[in-house]
Amino acid sequence: MGDCESTIPELEGEENLIAATRHIVKALGSKKNLTDSARKILAELGTQLSSMAVENETKGDGVSEIEDRLNAVEEKLLSWEEDQSMIWDSGPEEASEYLNAADEARKLTERLESLCLNKDDDEYKLLRRAHNCLQKAMERLEEEFRHLLVENRQPLEPEHVSFRSSEEDALDEGSIISFGDESVEDSLQRDSVSRASEEYILDLVHPDVIPDLRCIANLMFNSNYDQECYQAYTSVRKDALDECLFILEMEKLSIEDVLRMEWNSLNSKIKRWVRTMKIFVRVYLASEKCLSNQIFGELGPACVVCFVEASKASMLQLLNFGEAMSIGPHQPEKLSRILDMYEVLADLLPDMDTLYSDEAGSPVRIEFHEVLRRLGDSVRATFLEFKNAIASNASTNPFAGGGTHHLTRYVMNYVKILTDYREILNLLLKDHDEDDPSSLSPDMSPSREEENKSGISPMARHFRSIASVLESNLDEKSKLYKDHALQHFFLMNNIHYMAQKVKGSELRHIFGDEWTRKCNWKFQQHAMNYERASWSSILSLLKDEGIQNPGSNSISKTLLKERLRSFYLAFEETYKTQTTWLIPDLQLREDLRISTSLKVIQAYRTFVGRHASHISDKHIKYSADDLENFLLDLFEGSPKSLQNCHRR
What is known about what this protein does (predicted)? Predict the structure, then answer.
């Protein structure tokens, strides 16, 4: 056997020397005053001496003894090669015997490899047989490993995959987003991986087979068949996670598919994605990592690599959808949905950093951070686009009836919904405050000094800017009316709506009391201007100027009758016109009717009463009560006429 050949006396001499040295090392190790460094050196020396003793023991064994053991292993392994059934399906005893036989093949291979054999040696033929035997055993164990993983997969828990019906995706006017009742998905939004590990970890594989899987994995890794074991595991678990996404109804979509999708369909898919992300990361990925730890926990880095490779494709599939949304058109209707996506990723960031903390997981971790950043950029761009869309919303015709414009409702409901994202928006808009303070009208926005004093948030500043842009747009729309009274009426309605929307919601904490007071003052001014433009000229007919006889202070009955007739005609025309005008807010409608009625009825009663002696009943077309009742018909958006109406 060449240079590596040893005689029996030589082996015995080496054995005696090794034994003596081990005895000395053991004696030294028993001393109590040794330093940690010395103890470490002695421990390493002891390990080396043990290895040398095993090697010499192997060399001392007879070839026939090794061959007998190899024959026994081959016989056991061969018996299962001829059997088509799975070993682990035959019971624990058979499984244990096969594992022992495979482990024996490993040990024999290692012992033969420890000898310096030449290809011409008889022992070399034994080594080749041992290698072949070990390879067959590993191939069979890989098959059994895969079989155990597949056949013992646990069904997904129904409560983790339930979704509301598509009917719940419908939006009402005042709501852009709506979540259902508290559920597992909702509670997961507040839990991290650490809490999820306590409450939501699932047994993805039946617990009874975990020890068997761990034994097979350890043996395959110890036999240098780690790649085969790793590939079998990742292949099966990758399919399992794909199935999980399928059950969660997350189909594979390319970026092009997402960009081509209609909004209604995309809106529904975003909602599902948000829920899926929470469930997938905090339940399934956390459970997947737990499974990987259970099987490969004793094998060091292999545990991390198996988890990452098994989960990477599914995770990147989900992130791909997020990336598609971040690069798509920055349409305002998408903002709340993109904020939902950003919010869930920001919430899951600590979980992802924990799950993929090692170097093997860095590609997934980096991509997650990148998608989160892009969604943040998309939020800012969409927010700006929303403001631009308000400014550019042009009208060619006046809004019928002078009521609350659709744009006003949309914008105020929009910003109301955005209050749910206060923390995120303040974060994302922090470094993107308005560069041009002149974009805010001075009467609707606080001064810089007021802002600094009150500590106004970035979100508040942007919301006030949006309100200012909306007000400017409404002012332009009001100019489409030829009637000055209707211009003020239109602005009164819309600014009142803005004020009420702020006062009746969380917006009041963002806009602040000062903004609300200015807004209230503004719509009240428009109400007063409406009354002046509508009724001043009519009420001037109820004054005494111009009805005296020429050259005296006496009242001319003819002029008095003409003045009354002119008043009735003007009132009827105003009635006919302003019954078509609309004040949607009931309280504002009532307030303006009362204010108008007080002025008109008081002036009418005073005028008629003062000249009662000069006017006969036949010239009084309407009583004060008649006029008061007529005024109750105003501002309902329902056209009426008094032309055929007789005195009541």
Answer: Component of the exocyst complex.
CA neighbor of 466 nearest in space, from 420, 414, 421, 425:
414
pLDDT at 227: 93
User: Two tokens at 579?
Assistant: 């019954």
d(CA 79, CA 250): 46
Place of tokens 């016989």: 75
pLDDT band at 611 (very low <50, low <70, confident <90, very high): confident
Q: Tens digit of pLDDT for each residue in 20-68?
A: 776 676 666 666 666 756 655 655 665 565 555 545 554 545 567 778 8
Q: Check pLDDT > 90 for residue 174.
A: no
Domain membership of residue 365 as a residue range: 198-375
Mark whether 216 and 352 lie in a shared domain. yes
Predicted TM-score (pTM) of the model is: 0.74
Residues 602 and 489 in one domain: no
Average pLDDT over residues 315-332: 92
| Segment 187-208 mean pLDDT | 66
Please write the tens of the pLDDT for every residue from 558-606. Answer: 888 888 999 999 999 999 999 999 999 999 999 999 999 999 999 999 9
- Bridge partner residues of 153 (DSSP): 205
In angstroms, the CA 204 to CA 282 distance is 14
Q: Compute the Cα dihedral for 98, 99, 105, 107 and give only its sign.
A: negative
Contact 202, 240 (CB under 8 A): no
- Specify whether 366 is located in the same domain as 267: yes
DSSP conformation class of 319: H
Q: Could you give the C-alpha distances from 222 to 106, 116, 219, 236, 353, in angstroms and in order?
A: 8, 21, 5, 22, 31
The confidence score (pLDDT) of residue 18 equals: 64
Looking at residue 300, its pLDDT comes to: 86
Asked if residue 235 and residue 88 are part of one domain, the reply reads no
Quote the CA–CA distance of 142 and 148 in Å, as a whole number.
10
Is 189 contained in some domain? Answer: no
Q: Is 326 domain-assigned?
A: yes
- Cα-Cα end-to-end distance for the chain: 134
Find the largest Cα–Cα distance for the chain: 159
Buried b (16+ CB within 10 A) or exposed e, 109-118: bbbbeebebe
My answer on whether 116 and 220 are in the same domain is: no
Q: Could you tell me if residue 476 is inside a domain?
A: yes
Are 503 and 578 found together in one domain?
Answer: no
Three-state SS at 492: helix
Q: Tell me the two tokens of residue 620.
A: 């009084």
**How many domains is the chain built from?**
5
Within a domain: 243: yes
pLDDT at 365 over 80: yes
SS3 205: strand
- How far from chain centre, in Å, is Cα 61? 67
